[in-house]
Amino acid sequence: MLEHHDAIACVKLVPIFQQLDHETVSAVADLVQERHVKKGEFVFMAGDHADSLIIMAHGQVKVTQSSASGREQLIRLLQTGDFDGESVLFEDTERQTSAEALTDTQICLITREDFQKLIKQSPTVAINMLNALGKRVSELEAQAAATLTTSVGERLANYLVETSSELDTDDFDLPLQKKDLALYLGTSPETISRKLKQFSTSGLISQRGRNHIKLNDIDGLMMVEN
Amino acid sequence: MLEHHDAIACVKLVPIFQQLDHETVSAVADLVQERHVKKGEFVFMAGDHADSLIIMAHGQVKVTQSSASGREQLIRLLQTGDFDGESVLFEDTERQTSAEALTDTQICLITREDFQKLIKQSPTVAINMLNALGKRVSELEAQAAATLTTSVGERLANYLVETSSELDTDDFDLPLQKKDLALYLGTSPETISRKLKQFSTSGLISQRGRNHIKLNDIDGLMMVEN
DNA sequence: CAACCGACTTGATTTACGTCAAGTTGAATT
DNA sequence: AATTCAACTTGACGTAAATCAAGTCGGTTG
């Protein structure tokens, strides 16, 4: 019963299960498995057999891919409410990416098989899922465009503003090590250091301790060009 | 009746309408509108009201977005079989992007309303669409990663190989002006010129006339590093 | 066929950023 | 409180590629 209760919490969190009637929510909850992953542990690794959709109930996970040339690239940061594995729900493949928990994390799992059944039964779930994927495509397109046309400084400034907005405060610890942040922004830790110092010097932010940051001038940050 | 016939051709072309029974195909075809767009004309422009999914029956279309800073970015190249507008099918918004036909083009349109009905009636369509979107997400993630970690030379070489494979010949005209190709690869026309020259000099390709290219050493191209 | 014009090429210069190397810091452990 | 170590910072240097500027090419038009 406790399990079912936790699963319902999971289900309610996630956009793709919104707007369902209570009956369906309960049905979904029965299909969903819950799992805890501690900081530093892997949610899944490249090469794992991929047969489940993963839904973030709580925590933060970094998804990385290593390229042919051996370089590691941070593909994505999963936050509460995000889901991953969509691309894999309809074909039988191995995971191309690895996912490491950055904080203690709670996830919900639903198998390919169950999810496909669900879609056939509930058009609402299908439409929500299409919606979510559509948004994700838009975001990725925007991100791809930004990556090609903007400087590291712009991307970093933008990241700070976004993070601040997500955390709902302008005074926060960076959720990522600079190493990982560098991967995420497609740059090097050294450059991140330098850019942050630059922002400090020009008064846009204040830094304290290892990775505490306070934004002083959000409008200014959004206009950074280098 | 001719119209219906053309629409069926359209429907049969597109992955998301695959594996449907004849009855459903015919039903879909009734919902689909056909349209021709001449080279240089716009399929849609930023600011247009977006209420239709666009399916490429034939031709090539470039989708661009201008950023806040006024720079134009080539978001995507639509080829036969691709579709666009998915992100917009479930919410009522304006188009953020513009789409210009690079060749004479034939497209099929289906309205948001009709498409949503379709999904509710046919789980197969829903699943195909989820599949297609999932693949697209994967591609975009891979592309984003590649953009951040690879040099212009690598991206250009990769583009040449892909294009060759799509056109099914190693001896072809570049479908894009170098200006547009530069936008697509996130570089400048000058750099494209230079890199192509470099490839020529090292015997990887041959150039003829304004934009005719022959690939001499595909394996070599795939190993380009700069 | 001349002349026109956008697209492309080529060269010269600048610059953001990556990389390597040598410190420095601060959190965790004992 | 002393020790340790990964994470970070800072500096010096090299380089891919952007930008600026001046041609050149080739298709189009009258």
Task: Walk me through this protein's architecture.
The structure is a homodimer of 226-residue chains. The first copy, chain A, contains eight helices and 13 strands. Helix content of chain A is 45%, strand content 25%. Chain A has a four-stranded antiparallel beta sheet. Chain A has two domains: 2-129, Jelly Rolls (Sandwich), CATH 2.60.120.10; 150-222, Arc Repressor Mutant, subunit A. Chain A has helices at residues 2-13, 22-31, 112-121, 123-149, 152-167, 178-185, 189-201, 218-222, and strands at residues 33-37, 42-44, 49-50, 52-58, 61-66, 72-78, 83-84, 93-94, 98-101, 105-111, 171-173, 205-208, 212-215. The model of chain A has no long low-confidence stretch (mean pLDDT 88). Chain A is of the alpha+beta class and 226 residues long. In chain A, helix 1 (2-13) crosses helix 2 (22-31) and helix 3 (112-121) packs across helix 4. Chain A is elongated and about 55 Å long. The first copy, chain A, starts with a helix and ends with a helix. The interface between A and B is large, with 40 and 41 residues. The structure holds a DNA duplex (30 and 30 nucleotides).
Question: Can I get a quick summary?
Answer:
Chain A is α+β, with helices and mostly antiparallel strands. Chain A has two domains: 2-129, Jelly Rolls (Sandwich), CATH 2.60.120; 150-222, Winged helix-like DNA-binding domain superfamily/Winged helix DNA-binding domain (Arc Repressor Mutant, subunit A, Orthogonal Bundle).
